[in-house]
Each structure stands twice: as structure tokens, then as C-alpha cells.
Amino acid sequence: MKIDDLDQYFNTRLPRDHVKKDSDYFATQSLWNLITNKNILDVVEKILGKEIMSNPVQNTRIKQPEKKLPKGSILDGLSGRTPWHQDAAVLSRKGQKLTDMVTVWIPFTKTTKKNGCMITVKKINKMGLLNHIAGYRGQVEIKDSKLLDEMQHIHLEADVGDVILLHKHSIHCSLPNRSNDFRISADLRYNIAGQPSGRDPLPNFYVRSKNKKNLKIQNFKQWLALWEKAKEKCIPRKYAFKYPLPTFKTNKRDLSKLL
Ligand SMILES: O=C(O)CCC(=O)C(=O)O
């Protein structure tokens, strides 16, 4: 297996296109433990309140040292840099409008400027959802994001044991891995119960609720069963999820108009 093929096996989701019976996804006991970790949920509860669902926009990222990758195989998002974006931009239209979602970004290796930490800019988180475009490799990217490249950046460096929390409208991107080692992380997401997940029909289930009857998914096996059920739904339509880029009719939602 080529090193750049590894990504597929650490992706906590079904492939976007061509979902087949043997399509793989990365759902392990340890990831289940993390998603339902009490300390993480306590923090999320402070933001979203007591009725919380695990949101299926989840990734486990192994960011390989770019210098060790064959030319042309650096994939934005999973193995390379991630373009400037807001997380709400990767939800369905309903999700973009209605879902209050929090991202919990968890490093498994110390994450630095050199190995590709995330970056942001001070005081630009209150603009709401911005116009996005399909970036040069098809990744979701804020329109006019060159403007952000030129601003002063805050490097979100993190140690193992830290977490980074992102609002759905937090403007962020990540740097390429210019070190000699792998950078490994997971980004989990949660939303307020009752709101659309933005990734139907992927697993979206209660992880915390005052009403214990809502907590139907209690263990790893049940979680896996949800993934298998989602896969069955996706096979006939041949895709797992689609999201339209947030593109607004007027340019009022352009970053360049709001800065
Ligand atoms: O881990 C990364 O490099 C980027 C993560 C990110 O942009 C996200 O979780 O939204």
C-alpha cells in the first residue's frame, strides 16, 4: 500500500461517492471511547447545553511529512494543508442554517507550526457564515481567503492532552507538515439535539440527555451498527452525503465585504 492510500483507512466516514458494500470507514473502540468521553462531554455541555448529539462530521487525520510524500499525492484536508474555511460550510443547506455545532480538535502528537498546526486570526469569528468556493483541489475554501493569508496569524499549537474548540463559524485553516514526523489528530463534532446533523444519513445520536431514554446508543457495537445501517442506505444512491457550498446570491457574505 502506498503511504498516501492510508488516509482512506483513518477516515471516520463513508466515502462521499461510490459507497459500496465493502466501503471502509474508521470506527474503532478507542474512537468510540473518545466520542463519549465524560471530560470532553462536560466541556461541550458548557457550550451546547445538556442535550447533545454526536455529529458525524468526524475525521482522524494522519498528516504525513510532505517531504516524504510522492509529488502530486499531497491531499488538501487530510494529508496536506487545510484551506481557510468555517466548519458549517461542510454541512447540508439545512445544517448550515439550523445546526449549532462545536468542533473538538484533539491532538495525538504535539502539534506545532512546523508539523502543521491550525491557524486563525484574532477577532474575525463573528461574521456569520461566509461565501465559500471549491478550492484548487476541490476543498471547501472561503472566498477571497488570500486576504487571510496576509493577516497576522495565531498558531493553535497544542500538546497531547489539550483540546481545541471551534465554533461552526470559526475561521481557520491548517499549515502543511514540514517536519519529519507524522502529525496525528482527531476532529470530533457535536450538535444540539433535535437539529439536523447536516450529514444525513450518517450516525447522529444522543451522547448526553436528561432523559435517559434518549441514550439509545450505549456501546461501540451499537455505534458500528449505526454505521452499517447508514451504509445500507447509501449504497443504492451511490453516495454518502452531499453539501452545497455556502454561496449567497449577493456579495454581502464575502469576506472582503465584511473585514
Ligand atoms: O487538522 C487539520 O489539519 C485541520 C482541521 C480542521 O480544519 C477542522 O477540523 O475543521
Number of strands: 11
Flag low-confidence runs: none
Strand order of the largest sheet: 8-3-10-1-11
CATH topology category name:
Jelly Rolls
N-C termini distance? 45 Å
Kindly state the mean pLDDT as a whole number? 90
Number of structural domains: 1
Strand content: 15-25%
Q: Give the class-level CATH name.
A: Mainly Beta
Q: Give the SSE order as H and E letters.
A: HHEEHEEEEHEEEEEHH
Looking at this protein, list some descriptive labels:
globular; Jelly Rolls; 5-stranded antiparallel beta sheet; 4-stranded antiparallel beta sheet; 11 strands; 259 residues; alpha+beta; binds 2-oxoglutaric acid
Describe it for me?
By secondary structure, this protein is α+β, with helices and mostly antiparallel strands. It has a single domain, classed as Jelly Rolls. The chain is 19% helix and 22% strand. The chain has helices spanning 29-35, 38-48, 93-98, 146-149, 220-237, 255-258; strands at residues 52-63, 82-85, 101-107, 118-120, 132-134, 140-142, 154-156, 164-167, 172-174, 183-192, 205-208. The strands form three sheets. It has a five-stranded antiparallel β-sheet with strand order 8-3-10-1-11. A four-stranded antiparallel β-sheet has the order 2-9-4-7, with no helix packed on it. Strand 5 (132-134) and strand 6 form a beta hairpin. The longest helix has 18 residues, at 220-237. It is globular. The N and C termini lie far apart (45 Å). The model has no long low-confidence stretch (mean pLDDT 90). The chain binds 2-oxoglutaric acid. Residues 61, 82, 87, 103, 105, 116, 118, 172, 174, 185, 187 line the site of 2-oxoglutaric acid. 2-oxoglutaric acid binds at residues 61, 82, 87, 103, 105, 116, 118, 172, 174, 185, 187.
